[in-house]
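re: that chain from earlier
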Amino acid sequence: MCRHLAYVGPPIALASLLTDADHSLVRQAQAAKHQQSGTENPDGYGVGWWEPSTAPAGALQRYRTATSIWADPELPALAQREQATALLAAVRLASPGLPVEASGNAPFTDGTWLFSLNGLIDAWHDDVGAELRALVTPQRAATTEGRSDSEVCFGLTLDRLDGGATPGEALRAVVSEIVARTTGRLNFLLTNGRTIAATTWGNSLFTRVGRDTGTAIVASEPLDDDPTWVRVADRTSVVVENGTVTCASLAPTRSVQEIRAR
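^ sequence. v structure.
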């Protein structure tokens, strides 16, 4: 089902979140505590980050591989060397029927936004996947690299952002499009280096905001035992901006039986 996290704040080494924390992303990949399907995420990982600069969010970088995060020989040096004012990282347990390849790994990016899906869309290989792909605008569809459900969700999100939606509105709209057709686990994570937006739908999510330090983390699981971690309720959208966390309930959907009876 994957584990993911996003950070915005003062410059930090990638290692502080990916490898060095008590329950870092490497540890979550091998022994997740809150994951709804399995405890390991062996099918590669990715990290996107903004380098420190005088701009609000500096140059955007990305690294992805189909190698397990705990087995990647490049990670230790990369994580210690690179600094970030914001990042999004994810480890992957590939959805059934999807290939294990770097193009299917989050974070996905258009050069401005980073995106991840922790979950899966049921019946993706039936008509649902084709229906959702058809909703992506042609210009977005033309930039799709892989075959994952995650990348289609990102395309739908970008289309809504282009149409003037806020990050929270865009994610909520995509959830609505999906649950009108099928079931699934839909924990989205989105950031532009300043704002973090996310959804919970069938899997775990936590926030930690340090107003005195200017830091914000949204993650599938707490990275340590700090008591300021707050669990986000299921079927909720959350936006973290300028030290403020705003949550909104996602609309209930019909039962599985009603959807399948269409």
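Confidence is low (pLDDT under 50) at residues 254-262.
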